[in-house]
Amino acid sequence: MARLRQLIVYRGIMQDPVMAAVQEMLDCENARQRMDKACELAGRLIEKAEQYLLEGNIMEAWIWHLILNDVNPFSLDCERRSAGDSGSLYQAVLWDMGILKSVVAKVQEELESAGLQKITRQYVRDTKGKDGRLPARRRRDILAGFLQTLSFADPACQASSIADAAKEYYETNGCGVMAMYPMFRWSQTRGLVGIEYYDDIRLSDLVGYEYQKRTLIENTSSFVKGRPANNVLLAGAGGTGKSSSVKALVNEYFEDGLRLLEMGKEQMPLLPDVMKFLTGRGKRFILFIDDLSFEDQETDYKYIKSLLEGSAEKKPDNVIFYATSNRRHIIQQKWKDRDLNHMDEEVHGIEAMNEKLSLSQRFGITLTYPVPKQDEYLEIVSHMAAELGVNGDAQELRQKALQWALDQKGFSGRSARQFISAYAAQKQSEGRP
Fold first, then answer.
1. Alpha-carbon distance 83 to 90, whole Å?
2. Using CB atoms within 10 A as the burial measure, which of 22, 48, 131, 316 is most buried?
3. Coiled-coil region(s) at which residues (predicted)?
4. Which of 94, 64, 95, 90 is nearest to 77 (CA)?
5. Residue 229 near residue 322 (C-beta atoms within 8 A)
6. Which one, of 317, 205, 184, 316, lies nearest residue 252 by Cα?
């Protein structure tokens, strides 16, 4: 039986090592060889189960994983909410789901013949501890939901039911890695790469800067709803919560289709390729550049400048730029730019200054994050202590927090977080929370 090769829309899943093992097992005519291949398949399934936190019928769970993560014309149309259920593409999807149903049924038979059904149909992971990877836990819960309602091996389960469930999933979550991860990095070789251990901070975790938070919420909410929104520059001293504010927004609006793609300033020449990739995707992206600043001689800023405004290459409607910088004007200026002694120097000097100022001016919103005052710093410390359940004398906490700021880098949210981590560790070593 080699029907996997007859897949039309979902041919991409044939590249998966588990499906390659399935194909090899089904191709075997010798019973002894099929037994060996069944054991090899079971081993591959166990590897995936441990890696992706799968339980129960791990063959069906893995098939669902492949379907939900496959990027193809159907899943992309669904992500953009433009897929129908009567055209030729949908009919091809029904064909594929019918093939996968028959393949799964045959695989279950072979695994049962090999005496492996208890392992592969009722798989239980030994490690029940909390997994730190939020995307892995989300994936586990989603797959468990599908397994409870739909079974490929069940004759009563129609191919159309499977196709419609996949369609609904794509429309809600997107397809490929875009469905599971709120935050991404860009790799020149791999493209969009999901961040497994990302910062799950929420806006409620951030103390102070109420005007800045309110402005970010209003602008981001407008963007998520497809309304006009501005690119944003968050400027201010280090450790004041600029990056945390942007990441908190993505966690708040993930279910509404918002994603974050973080890029370094050294990746600016890749922006045209990134824009091409994101164009037409069904999710909305904050393209986030942390610590955006350029030295006097650097010119890579021109890539982002041209996309922000004034270039023939239009920024996609589903992309917005948020950047942080310790410099309000991003590009370093020197006194020589202002030291104008002659007419020609004046002309070129003004042009140089205008060039350097123009990048920051192309952000529609600039939010300033000043260093917190002493009472604001102590409020942040108190909030973090309560969040972590750190108990102790309030006066002692205050005095040690102030001493920490004096010894370290002054008043900032980052200093407060570092202090609380050290203070909590000290209390634990003393045997009290």
1. 8
2. 22
3. none
4. 90
5. no
6. 205
- The tokens for 39 are 């054991």
> 261: helix, coil or strand?
strand
CA–CA separation, 75 and 167 (whole Å)? 7
- Report in angstroms the alpha-carbon separations of 98 from 8, 62, 153, 157: 11, 17, 11, 10
User: What is the mean pLDDT of the segment spanning 95-101?
Assistant: 96
Give the integer Cα–Cα distance in Å for 430 and 433: 8
**Does 174 have pLDDT greater than 50?**
yes
DSSP string, 172-224: HH-SGGGGT-SEEEEETTTEEEE-SS-----GGG--S-HHHHHHHHHHHHHHH
Token pair belonging to 308: 């922000």
Query: The tokens 């005496």 sit on which residue?
Result: 115
Residue 361 to residue 342: CA distance in whole angstroms: 27
> Which candidate, 377, 376, 365, 366, places its Cα nearest to that of 401?
377
- Alpha-carbon distances of 178 from 39, 216, 258, 273, rounded to whole Å: 33, 23, 10, 17
CA pair distance 2, 11, nearest whole angstrom? 13
Locate tokens 């350097």: which residue? 356
Ranked by mean pLDDT, which of 119-128, 367-376, 408-417 comes out on top?
367-376
- The CA-to-CA distance between both ends of the chain, in Å, stands at 62
For tokens 């999807």, name the residue: 93
Least confident of 248-262, 267-281, 404-418: 404-418
Q: Is residue 66 within 8 Å of residue 16, measured between CB atoms?
A: yes
Q: Output the six-digit token pair for 304.
A: 């982002």
Given the DSSP bridges, would you call strands 183-187 and 191-194 parallel, antiparallel or unpaired? Answer: antiparallel
For 40, the enclosing helix (H) or strand (E) is helix 31-52
